User: What shape does this take?
Amino acid sequence: MHPIFLELGSMTIRWYGVMVAIGFLLATFVLNQNKKYAKMTSDQVTTLVFLSVVFGIVGARIFYIVEFWQQFKGNFWEIFRVDHGGLVFYGGFFLAMAAIAGYCWKEKLNMLRVMDICCPALAVGHAFGRIGCFLNGCCYGKPTQSFLGVVYPEGSAAFIKYGGLPIHPVQLYETAANLILASILFVLVRKTKRGIVMSLYITAYGVIRFIDEFFRGDHGSLTWGLFTPAQVIGLFLIPIGIILFIYFMRKNEAKNNQSNDR
Assistant: This one.
């Protein structure tokens, strides 16, 4: 854990913010590599990424505040300190998707194809955001005897809860999973019809997050005494992704058959 990147007088730049910025730049780069598959210009890509980041951060922060409201009682201004960490991905995901849909409608872009090219970029940006979580000391894991275990310093949230016990670096698990997913989806965008990549992302990330949550150690109460809020959302997203995948596969096959008949 090393939350501080640079201190310039009274100004402090944290690694969390640096990693989010790197994720933003890499997501823009990935989108630009695939923009032709959604018939987008570079200006449209830049605007889309900006809107996604702004709405994504707002949505992710709102979800975090709702889930961990106890942390902000008596410390109202901490609500706005996003640089200290504290974002819930699903909140950002849903609000960012709404922003993308609105922008596609305004610019008359094919929303499904835009969603497809956004998925590998989103996975890349999310991966670096999780590195920021690791350095910041938030979203930490449960104790483990594995050689992968890490020990957080005194004063950190993980140390306060678990002392000097080694804990799972769950943030880095999710980083690795997101980078693998991004690589696969990046290739599939160029080889599949619209809707397929989006469906696979929804399904795959739902599975990744559901599994990763079992190793998280920063949870409060569990839903039904079994699952975290993120796992419950994943349980809804996984079947939705599978249904969408089957639907788009059949739809694309039907179009191919019609073309062959002609």
Summary: The CA atoms of residues 203 and 240 lie 7 Å apart.
